[in-house]
Amino acid sequence: MGIFHKKETHESRSSSMSYAMHWKPENLRRISVISLFVIAAVVTLIGLNSQDKKNVALAKDGEMGSVETQHSLMNEVLDEHSILLNPEDKVSSPLAISVVRAVPVKLTVDGTTKTHFTTQKDVEGAIKELGVSLDPIDKITPALSSELKSNLEIRIVRVNKQLVQTQEAVPFTIVKTSDPDLLKGKTKVIQQGSKGLVTHNIEKVYEDGIFVSKQWLGKEVSKTAQPKVIAVGTKKPTAVLSASITRTGDKVDISGLTTKGGVSFKYKKVLKNVTLTAYSAEEDGIGTKTASGTRVKEGRTIAVDKSVVPMGWWVYIEGVGFRRAEDTGGAIKGNKMDVYYDSLKAANQFGRKKGRTVYVIGPTKPELN
């Protein structure tokens, strides 16, 4: 009876060991490749939009949540949010991707309407994103804080304010004053009136170039009006019934009324055959100060014999006009008078004139009626 011997299976044992030896490196390579792929995918996902903030899902101590970050590395995210790890802690790195859908909005500004897509939350964010500049007085509809919705219509109205100045003439007033030296019924203009000028400040408002309103801001007086002053005569006229005539040599005293050069006046007396000479301050020894204390003035000053014509009285000289007795002279006696000229040349040209008639009027100069 034979004995059955179990057949040795050296070949099988060798094959099993060979397979085991072959499986380990191959699987290690597969595991390495898969790990590298997973790490690359995680890094790629984290790197998406790395310049923008993103939401990352974070599960800590059994609580699920999310954090916002701009970082792309896990340790940077953890450091940013002050999450400390112990050596025994376990960290996994799945990235939660947050997708925000852009919505269309219609923006009307500067005469054009366009549709834009935006992920902003409110009107202000959308306007900033589109790079539209705003002035503080511009009108925005709806308000900047309004929440964005799909197909929301946003309108910006450009507001412009302009300051306009207009001028208005102000008429002058007329002031009348009594003059006891002026005959009743006569008037004389003492001061000419002039109009004033007022500047009005007005603010005009335009919306998108169209005028909508205006507001008066105030006024400024550019020029003050000057009143016109008129003297009204209150003096009663004295009727001349007769003239008294007194002759003393060449002097004839006649009091009465006459008209010379368009001016009517009352005179005290008339001097006949008066000799006139001229003098000037440019002559040696002749000053500019008169005997009466006034300053010599061409067209006004004459030198007289004050016993014939009192100082300060006005006279009318035929061929010369109205003059005032303001000066005297050692050689001026009786019916002699010196007429003042600024220029010595003019005085010499005047020379000497004889046989003139002079009306002695009084301390008040007659005015044109």
TrEMBL record:
SMART domains, sorted: G5
Task: Provide the transmembrane region boundaries.
Answer: 31-48
Please provide one cellular component term from the Gene Ontology annotations of this protein.
outer membrane
Domain G5 span(s) in chain numbering? 156-236
Q: Cell membrane: present as a keyword of the record? A: no
Key words of the record: Membrane, Signal, Transmembrane, Transmembrane helix
Molecular function via GO: hydrolase activity, hydrolyzing O-glycosyl compounds
- Its recorded name reads DUF348 domain-containing protein
